[in-house]
């Protein structure tokens, strides 16, 4: 199956993301973080391309994909303009085809500005990743957390439409399901911990509980909510 006009906005963002990824090849070390996140975005978009080629998308899915693509185009355009400041064509450094290579100028990119670009791109990576999840399976319980974060960090109307589309999950039913699968005594160590007791007795505080995938963070969260 070949791409048609139905996903034209996606095709444009796929091409732009791939161009930016290539521009970061052999970039100085100060650009590693932004180069990595740009590569991740490009890979996620190519995963969507693979899915479309194999199984296709409904009209509604194509519309959602185009909405997400148009929203992402702004940040990549901004990044492309910024790269034009830090790179220039070197007539003395040519590729095999005879075209000039881009070389990096001896300029230092403001770290705060770079961090802002990373956050903006990360937000769109999450949107596209959730789109992939919606194609492959039902959206997981963690979707609500991501959607809430998108709602608070992105004001653009298009992203809001995507967030609304991703939220029709019955969280009460999922909460009951998680609680029904816990073993007797599960989470007792957390509920009795001093840091947890201090956190639950105070307002407006955050408690960070990390763990590898499969460690049981979702079950623990359901126990805390219960």
UniProtKB/TrEMBL annotation:
Entry keyword Repeat: yes
Highest rank taxon of the organism: Eukaryota
Domain Nephrocystin 3-like N-terminal intervals: 185-226
Keyword Ribonucleoprotein: no
Keyword entries, A-Z: Repeat
InterPro entries: NPHP3-like_N
Protein name per UniProt: Nephrocystin 3-like N-terminal domain-containing protein
The organism of origin for this protein: Aspergillus carbonarius (strain ITEM 5010)
Source organism phylogeny: Eukaryota, Fungi, Dikarya, Ascomycota, Pezizomycotina
């Amino acid at each position: 199956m070949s791409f048609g006009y139905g996903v034209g906005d996606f095709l444009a963002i796929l091409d732009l993301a791939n161009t930016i990824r290539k521009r970061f090849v052999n970039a100085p070390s100060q650009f590693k973080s932004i180069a990595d996140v740009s590569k991740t975005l490009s890979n996620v978009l190519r995963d969507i391309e693979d899915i479309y080629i194999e199984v296709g998308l409904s009209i509604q899915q194509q519309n959602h994909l185009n909405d997400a693509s148009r929203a992402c185009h702004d940040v990549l355009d901004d990044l492309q303009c910024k790269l034009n400041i830090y790179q220039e064509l070197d007539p003395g450094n040519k590729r095999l085809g005879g075209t000039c290579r881009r070389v990096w100028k001896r300029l230092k990119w403001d770290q705060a500005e770079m961090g802002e670009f990373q956050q903006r791109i990360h937000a769109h990576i999450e949107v596209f990743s959730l789109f992939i999840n919606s194609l492959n399976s039902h959206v997981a319980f963690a979707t609500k957390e991501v959607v809430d974060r998108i709602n608070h960090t992105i004001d653009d109307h298009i992203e809001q439409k995507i967030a609304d589309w991703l939220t029709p999950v019955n969280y009460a039913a999922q909460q009951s399901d998680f609680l029904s699968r816990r073993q007797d005594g599960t989470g007792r160590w957390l509920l009795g911990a001093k840091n947890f007791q201090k956190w639950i007795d105070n307002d407006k505080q955050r408690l960070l509980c990390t763990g590898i995938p499969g460690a049981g963070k979702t079950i623990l969260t359901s126990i805390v909510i219960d």
